[in-house]
Amino acid sequence: MQDAPIQPLVVWRLMDGKPGHESQTLGLVNALKRLAAEQGFAEPRCIDMPLGDYPYTLWDWLFKRFRPGFLQPRPDFIIGAGHRTHWPMLCARRSVGGKAIALMSPTLPSWCFDWVVAPAHDGLTGRNVIVTQGVLNAMQPAAVKRPGYTVVMVGGVSKHFLWDDTQVLAQLEQIMARHPQVRLTDSRRTPAALRTTLAARWPVEYQPWEQCPPGWLASELAIAENAWVTEDSVSMIYEALTAGCAVGLVGLQRPEGKPGRLVRGVEGLLKNGLLCKHPGALVSQTINRTVLAEARRVAYVIWGTRT
Predict the structure, then answer these.
(1) What sign does the dihedral 262-263-264-270 (CA atoms) show?
(2) Is 45 among the domain residues?
(3) Which of 247, 236, 246, 178 lies closest to 212 in space, CA to CA?
(4) Which of 73, 148, 163, 192 is the most exposed place for a label (fewest CB within 10 A)?
(5) Measured between alpha carbons, how far is 290 from 234 in angstroms, rounded to an integer?
(6) Domain shared by 129 and 150, yes or no
(7) pLDDT confidence bin for 287, thresholds 50/70/90
């Protein structure tokens, strides 16, 4: 084991204010911290940098302008997710150095960045591209799962699927009857009529999304043995897999035509036996139980390139 360095690794985490993007960058930062502890190094220092409304452009890059970095320690890694972080990442790297790591396929050419972490369904390739199953997230399984405990997550209207309250409710009836230890939650996209039905049908088990305290879902998935997710909620599917749950799908009909890239990614998980699509089944007994650890895998790759 090597001696811990005097100065820890410094990570700049650029934040555009979108929870989904910030979950991705947090997942990678936390994975780097766990990896440093395993390797016997000092914990990396993460500096969160909200970007605000300033529109970074090519001119900022040319003149080496990056406002949030003023008087901050120089970074080893600059991490961002979402198109609003792309120019700021490049401006920060040109201004103070460090490696720029874009999560998800960028709007700028991938060669502009040191690393691009892109989900397989984006179809991006290249020497500096790390392909992952789904986008990164900050989920982690608990040391001990609660046997039989199940979390059910209901999404809503999506351009990739044809939403039908009756169809969804029929599947939920089977799932709720099969799993006695269960919590049920919804999302911003869940139709109001269905939310009313959920509250009336399962008043004890139902947790409306707006009443979930910060971190509630992550803590629930961490201890849950099973998770059921409506097929439209792709990010929730990958988060449940990362949390170590056995994951089943609440199926939805699809519009005519070729399925989109997100749908094809879920189809790949089904084909590989990582998901179940039978609401009357005990999902933990019907799939190949696999815990996704994509943030950890990405952390290993970029850790080896630190200076």
Answers:
(1) positive
(2) yes
(3) 236
(4) 192
(5) 17
(6) no
(7) low
